[in-house]
Structures are given as C-alpha cells and as structure tokens.
Amino acid sequence: xxxxxxxxxxxxxxxxxxxSPGALSFHARRFARQERGESTxxxxxxxxxxxGHAELRWVGCDAAAVRAAxxxxxEINGLGVWPEELRSRGIGTALIHTAxxxxxxxxxxxxxxxxxxxxxxxxxxxARLGYAPLTDYxxxxxxxxxxxxxxxxxxxxxxxxxxxx
Length: 165
Hints:
The chain has helices at residues 10-17, 26-35, 64-69, 91-105, 120-128, and strands at 2-5, 39-46, 49-57, 75-81, 110-116, 132-144, 150-163.
C-alpha cells in the first residue's frame, strides 16, 4: 500500500473506484480545496487502485463549537476505506499517521477529527491511536444527488484531538 497526495489525474480514478453522489464529486471538491491551499487530500493506493482517502483540512473543522474549543486545530476529515472488505487492514491507520506526519512537518503539534456518535468502530480506532474527546458538535453537510436534488445531513459527533508531541 502507498499513500500519496491527490493529483488532478487521480480524481477520475477516485470517482470510478470510490464513487460519490452529485454533479460535482466528493473527490473533486476536496481536490479543489487542496488546490486553494486549504487542505491536503491523501489517497491510499493498493495495486494502482485507490482504496482510501482522508482530507487534512488546514483550516480546521467548520463547526463553531470545535473552533471555539481548539482554535487553529487542523482536522482529518472524510476518512474512508473502500471496498468494505478492505477495512480493518491498517489502511485508515496509515492515512491518519500520514496526516499526523504532515501536521508535524508544518510545526503544528495537534490534530483532530470528528466521529459520529453512531460509529463506535471508528471511535475505538481513534481512541487506540491516542485521540481524546474535546467537544460534542453537530456536523452539517449536504450533497446533490444524480437527479439534482440537494440533501442536507446533520450528525451528532464528538471532536477528538491528539497532541502529537
């Protein structure tokens, strides 16, 4: 397995192997933020196929509660491994470790991530990797389905932080 920073040519492969709903793909939006310098979009590859991703958002979490509790804390966002049978094989952990290394390279000594309250499997992984609860918040996001209908989501989450030094 290899972890790389997303390139322009990777978005099409990501859409093919790890699809996303909407007119503008999940991956294209993340790549556009990377191009603006707001994030670094990490891709996990296995046999020349993308099998995971995580966006390291240098601008931090969008939620005001998180920003107030830990100003300036970058956020690991959109962590995913696909297909499902590849989960629990270290891909997510490798993406997180790469994000942590990039954070330290910038001289930043803490990084955070959110976990939905109904995702105990992910919460267990994050705790094992040293992430501790900071604050609860509501994660809000939306996507446009293939028919052009906008769907809004709200999830109850906990923001976790890890001090890297």
